[in-house]
Amino acid sequence: MNSVNLKQLAQELNLSVSTVSRALRDSWEISTPTKQRVFDLAKKMNFQPNPYASSLRKHRSRTIAVVIPEVANNFFALAIKGIETVAREKGYHVLIYLTNEEVAEEMAIAASLQSGRVDGVILSLCGSTQDTRHLLDLQQRNIPLVFFDRVSDGITAPKVMTNDHESGFIATEHLIKAGCRRVAHLTISMSLSISHKRQQGYEDGLRRYDQPWDPDLVIHCGSDEEVNYRMIKELFLSDKRPDGVFASVEKLAVQVYHVCRELGLRIPEDVKVISFSNLVTASLLSPSLTTIAQPAYDMGKEAATILFRRLEKKYIVVPEDRVMLPAKLEVRASTMSS
Amino acid sequence: MNSVNLKQLAQELNLSVSTVSRALRDSWEISTPTKQRVFDLAKKMNFQPNPYASSLRKHRSRTIAVVIPEVANNFFALAIKGIETVAREKGYHVLIYLTNEEVAEEMAIAASLQSGRVDGVILSLCGSTQDTRHLLDLQQRNIPLVFFDRVSDGITAPKVMTNDHESGFIATEHLIKAGCRRVAHLTISMSLSISHKRQQGYEDGLRRYDQPWDPDLVIHCGSDEEVNYRMIKELFLSDKRPDGVFASVEKLAVQVYHVCRELGLRIPEDVKVISFSNLVTASLLSPSLTTIAQPAYDMGKEAATILFRRLEKKYIVVPEDRVMLPAKLEVRASTMSS
DNA sequence: CTGTTAGCGCTTTCAA
DNA sequence: TTGAAAGCGCTAACAG
């Protein structure tokens, strides 16, 4: 690193290091002409202050960490984009850590983050995390933590998530308004609270529009694609064949697609399908398929905004718990790049 | 930050700071019993060395920057994953910066990276970048740069990219081996070198298998989806209806899908389609559709590996230009999460 | 084997 | 309005 530093600037200008430092941060205690001289030389010499020296001295790194289970998933990718956007706006840098859905990695990362490397952390838990001591440790070190999407109930911290109830409601409403009379709901692992809430929204949607709730139209799917396929097929072969399907996750919508293909049913003419999705797969089901998109980008921005509000200590010490962003109904064009 | 530091450890143990420092880095000049005492107390007090102090002192941050045009694109997301994996293995941290395809942002980021914040940079150019002075500045500051995917010919630096010629060849070969006799090729903006190379691969593939090359089977598509759709439809309605299509980008494969749907052609029974893709859209075309996937993850790992090799100064100062990773033919199962 | 010392480059009192 | 000086926490000569 052959970089110029304050000392060199100071020597060149016959000023003290401290004066140069102050001038560069536009301190009011420096005369305008001096500032000008300093600015000019700094630009000329392409001076870049050493961030680590500054961090060491100020105990602030202007860096945050984003810890997520994976990135090869449009949801998290968009969230990162939201976070990065806000971060750069505020002059922060973003470190990224992937847990790969491994609790052990999450813990190791959390431990390493105790070093003061970052001023704050935005985190989405990996699926299997139960014990959250490693996160409490972070908070004890005064490193603010903001959860998003996959939150933990056991920790007091701001949480940014989608309003799954509302999302389920909107999806159901959409199908009913589109003329469906037998709306099925495909769920996944009911142990997840999101599934639960989406189903609540589904039921409330039916109720709101005076549709009967039929337990046979709710299929609890699991992780075995084969089994899911069979269950969905059975549903379509039964006397309760749905004319609308609300799939809680996109892979289930894909299964519906395959079932319909096998049975010679057309989408969306015979069966309308709506699904949560941040992928583009869905656009193939129909050129104008409607999806429920988690507002990933907005969630990222929101999480970052909340974190920075804490970091800049705006004296709002209200632990604003649970910000719920509404899901968005989206008609997607098929826009994809290579 | 209430963190413990070396001084506190030293006091507690009646040792000097430097001894503790050395012990923690497992220096050979410290006795085993002393090391043990130090380790134990460090663990007990949950000591985490301040990375910024260390960076300041050593002029190395063990941090790299990844600069990419966007992240909401499976290719770059996977690349990040590859980079992060290698980085964590080597004990490095990864800062992420998005240019949003804006040259101005790319330049600003490059400028800020001159501060010594990172030891090296992995970068994929944004589409419009012509002038690469900002990157030369980085190199002049002795910050190694590794390109991946979107490389610049104007700069001497390692470049990791996919072998587009080979990819085009493989795709064509696959269709021919699957029994296709009239393989069409859908290209995009021939100004891009990747399109050019893929087409070369296509032509060489035909030649290799003694298939005639028919200019009518090559459609140069543009950015207007409507127009592309019409051109593809015309091709299928002509007397040269293809039984195999090699789409250079996925969105063109999608258009083929729509055209086939309209014309009542089945995929893959009547027409086989193969496409470049790192998205999962393709899996819908057929449960077992074959795609040509850019080896994004591997490219990320490769780029990171090359970068770290430089950083760790293995005295291999061979500027290993242009590492070309082969594209991979993939039969994809439809694996998607919410 | 361990300690002393002198910084890394910057910020921030405290003086002038 | 400017300067001198004391560190932030850690590392690396150089001594012992």
From TrEMBL, chains A, B:
SMART domains: HTH_LACI. Keywords: DNA-binding, Transcription, Transcription regulation. This is LacI family transcriptional regulator. It comes from Puia dinghuensis. It comes from the Bacteria. Gene3D superfamilies: 3.40.50.2300, lambda repressor-like DNA-binding domains (1.10.260.40). GO terms for molecular function: DNA-binding transcription factor activity; transcription cis-regulatory region binding. Transmembrane segments: none annotated. PROSITE patterns: HTH_LACI_2.
